Amino acid sequence: MGQRVVPAILITLLVILHAQLWWGRGSLPNVAHLTQQLNSQKELNQQAQLANDRLAAEVRDLQEGLEMVEEKARMELGMVKPNEIFVQFARSPTPAKAR
Description:
Elements: H1 2-23, H2 28-64, H3 66-77
Helix pairs in contact: 2-3
């Protein structure tokens, strides 16, 4: 009887470890799912980092000189300096060729 206890215990431990590998907290499907989540989060982080870099560059431009402030005011708010004349050209559609 003593000779059969040790192999039975070892087989039981092997079954438990194998079950943990497939259904436990650190199982292969769980690890694959977490890896997929990690990759998608890295992609989102990279997109957010690009947006942050663009905003940081814009902030730097605004802090370093008035040219960027003036350009934004002209483009977004329609700013015109005193004694400055604003002329806007409207493009007309190209005329049809005469036959």
